[in-house]
């Protein structure tokens, strides 16, 4: 697995030659909604903020582990004043390849496969009591993955260790429920295929359009239209991979009234035209 050189594309991880991408202690944050083509594991070592996923906002704090299934739309926002202290370990892994190597560990294999289902929600775990152990594990595997001599067995062993530390129930109950952006994202989820009208959204929420627009940007760091566009493109990706519909039909089903605009928007965010993207899955 290797990472794209561009930071502008939504799908930053391409599943090519490698099956794992391991990055540690990088004080940066992707501040726009995005997704990856593989399983993503994010462990917060230091710093605070908010993660937006499943149309909800979760507190980001030390000792919290997030697992995002492939193609799960999410966003990481480090709190103001935390950029200098924010540290995380982030792992992208080809879950299909690794699942086949866990055949001798059926319980962990089933656990990994459940976490990797596209329809599964992102999982959130609090494992701060194991932070010292996590530091040892991540330090060891960081050294391994920074060389070209690592093996699929190394990746499998790392995941088995991580899965062993996960509690029986995740911490999805710790949700920031008071945000307006949650309601906006849920509305978008139900209406992204239709023509967008801010007036309709504001009417649905019983608020003014200027207030809705301002609050959403304050809470998520992006305009409503950018989030809507990302959601539409993610749906278009699903149709391009899983259906034989024409580009024009997919653009309409995804909420785009103009095919040319759809193609240009898709290329700007994915780095490929819709047709090129489809061919890469054939």
In words, what does this structure look like?
The chain has 2 domains: 2-175, Sandwich (Jelly Rolls), CATH 2.60.120.280; 178-279, Homeodomain-like (Arc Repressor Mutant, subunit A). The chain contains 11 helices and 11 strands. Residues 1-7 have low confidence and may be disordered. The chain is globular. The chain starts with a strand and ends with a helix. The chain has helices at 95-101, 106-116, 131-145, 152-165, 180-191, 198-205, 209-220, 224-242, 247-253, 259-270, 274-279; strands spanning 2-3, 13-14, 20-24, 39-46, 49-53, 56-60, 64-68, 74-78, 87-93, 123-126, 175-176. It is α+β, with helices and mostly antiparallel strands. The protein has a 5-stranded antiparallel sheet with strand order 3-9-4-7-10, covered by helices on one side. Helix 1 packs antiparallel against helix 2 (106-116), helix 3 (131-145) packs antiparallel against helix 4 and helix 5 (180-191) runs parallel beside helix 8 (224-242).
